Amino acid sequence: MRVAGSFDLFRNVLFSNVFLLDGGPGDRWLVDTGHWSERLSLLVALRRRGLSPRDLTGVLLTHLHSDHAGNARFLQRQGVRIHAHRRDAETLANRSRTRMTRGAGSFVAGLLAEFENHFPAHLEVDRALDEGDTVAGLEVHWVPGHTEGSVFYRHESTHTLLSGDSLLTAIPPLVVQRGMALPYPTFTVDLERAVASVRAFHARGHRYEHLLPGHGPPLVGGARGQVLEFLATQ
């Protein structure tokens, strides 16, 4: 489903949003990869567009959690280059990482956290990204807090922002109820820093019209204004 500019949303990948930035042959990029349990759904979504993993130019990860990076290693083995922020790249390469705890979250969130603790994504990324880098026509904006290497990707030519789990349009932890949301505490390394990162990004005046989040429906048109109104209530 085309959602904004050259961005497609893979509707049949359910646990998290996977977007295809399709600039034609030699310029096709996935933003996130879905959970490993939805690998077949991911492959079906590609096939419906006449594509296979080998037709992809690369993958851009918004962060390291397995519902977003779960198929990255599989795609890498098909010859696809994987990109992630340097801080998350370091964690993805290291099987030892900080365990998630339920904390102030719900019982369901605690179960999901334990699943992530036992089955995290693991790989050596091909390119570690830093604040200010540009890849696939997307600006890399570091927004640490949800994970140490969470990023926004801003596509200036289509006025589109891909926000991963740092800014959502569905309510965690099950993300079936629509509504603007900030990162959920159970899944977040530093909630205060995560919120501050989102606020700082918007304070710098970065413009966008469309928001493509890691969970929840895309906001097409007027998205930045809606986000600012939401942040003013937090």
Helix/strand layout:
Elements (H helix, E strand, L loop, with lengths): L1 E3 L2 E3 L9 E4 L5 E4 L7 H10 L9 E3 L5 H4 L2 H6 L3 E5 H7 L14 H12 L8 E3 L4 E2 L2 E5 L8 E5 L4 E5 L3 E4 L5 E5 L9 H13 L6 E4 L5 E2 L2 H9 L3
Oligomer: single chain
CATH level-4 homologous superfamily:
Ribonuclease Z/Hydroxyacylglutathione hydrolase-like
- Taken as a percent bin, the fraction of beta residues is 15-25%
Biggest sheet architecture: 7 strands, mixed
Spatial ordering of strands, largest sheet? 1-2-3-4-5-6-7
The count of β-strands is: 15
CATH architecture: 4-Layer Sandwich
Q: What does the radius of gyration come to?
A: 16 Å
Overall, the morphology is: globular
| Highest-level CATH class | Alpha Beta
Unreliable stretches (pLDDT < 50, length at least 5) are none
CATH topology: Metallo-beta-lactamase, Chain A
Helix content: 25-40%
Structural class: alpha/beta
Order of helices and strands: EEEEHEHHEHHEEEEEEEHEEH
| Count of discrete alpha- or pi-helical segments spanning 4 or more residues | 7
Question: Can you give the mean pLDDT?
Answer: 96
Short account of what is shown:
This protein is an alpha/beta fold and 234 residues long.
Q: How would you describe this protein?
A:
The protein has 234 residues and is an alpha/beta fold. The protein has one domain: Metallo-beta-lactamase, Chain A, CATH 3.60.15.10. The protein contains seven helices and 15 strands. Helix 1 (39-48) links the parallel strand 4 and strand 5 (58-60). The model has no long low-confidence stretch (mean pLDDT 96).
